[in-house]
Amino acid sequence: MADLSALKPGIRLSIENPSSESGSVFGRGIANLCLGVRETGSLNAAAKGMGMAYSKAWRIIKETEAALGVQLLDRDGAHGSTLTEAGDKILDAYVELDSRMSEMAEKALKELL
Predict the structure, then answer these.
(1) 55 inside domain
(2) I want to staple 87 with a disulfide (CB 3.0 to 4.6 A). Which of 3, 18, 59, 72 is the partner?
(3) H/E element holding 74?
C-alpha cells in the first residue's frame, strides 16, 4: 500500500482587483519580488536574486500596480526602492493568507487521507 503521509497540498493564492480587465494579480512571484525589495532595498537586487532581468521585474511591478490600482514601490533611482505603505500591507496580507491557507490545507489533507 502507498504511503500517503508525505503528500502536501499545493495552494496558489492571488490577490486581484475584480474590476481590472488586466490578467495581472498579486501572486507568489510578485510577493517574492516585493520580499526581495523589502530585504535589499533595491528592485534590481531583488530581481537578480530571483534570476530575473531588471526590465522584467520593472514590467511586472508596473503591470501589477496598474491592475490593482495601487503603487507598490517607491523608486528613488540610484538610491534603490522601498515598498509603499500599500505595498507593505498587501505583501503582509498575502504572506499571512498564504500561511493560513497552507496550514488549513495540510490539516484537511491529513484528515481526508
Answers:
(1) yes
(2) 72
(3) strand 73-75
